[in-house]
Design goal:
The protein is globular. The chain has one helix and ten strands; from the N terminus they run αββββββββββ. The chain has one domain. The protein is mostly beta strands and 163 residues long.
């Protein structure tokens, strides 16, 4: 009886391990990435107002404080300027590829500081051939209390600089 219980427990642990790790794409612990918003990207708030973003920078998935970069912002209700990325909140690689093996699909969330004193979150999402259909392409952001969540599809990508 005891051997059967241990065998069943081992089987359950093995199945759960396979399910949890199946289809996940991971970067090595010392990887360095570049994030890029191609030319400009826009996202809409619930009232139809928009934010337009440009930018580029670098980050290390295993060190949330090892970030560089920023870009420009402009909102349709008035106001524009620059932003700086201050921290990586989360990064997940996604399946998908192009002919350049250093270019990756994925989703990143960054804390940002705008030059008008407001703070927010920048979301960069990249969809490549072979990426699941529910992964978006482009960038979205929050600025202060406004959430520009409805991203308008536009080019963004992640480039692995080191592994």
């Amino acid at each position: 009886m005891k051997a059967r219980t241990l065998l069943l427990l081992g089987f359950v642990i093995a199945v759960v391990s396979l399910l949890v790790t199946n289809a996940k794409v991971r970067a090595s612990d010392d990887a360095q990435f570049k994030w890029v918003i191609g030319s400009t990207a826009s996202a809409l708030a619930v009232d139809g107002s928009s934010i337009t973003l440009t930018g580029t920078g670098t980050f290390a998935p295993d060190d949330p404080d090892e970030v560089t970069g920023g870009g420009t912002w402009a909102v349709s209700t008035g106001g524009s300027g620059n932003f700086n990325v201050t921290r990586l909140i989360r990064f997940n690689l996604a399946p998908g590829s192009v002919s350049n093996p250093s270019i990756h699909a994925g989703l990143a969330f960054f804390a940002v500081a705008y030059d008008d004193g407001s703070r927010g979150i920048l979301v960069v999402s990249c969809h490549l051939p072979g990426t699941p259909a529910n992964v978006a392409e482009g960038a979205a952001a929050s600025k202060g209390f406004v959430d520009y969540f409805n991203l308008q599809p536009h080019g963004a990508f992640f480039q692995q600089l080191s592994s």
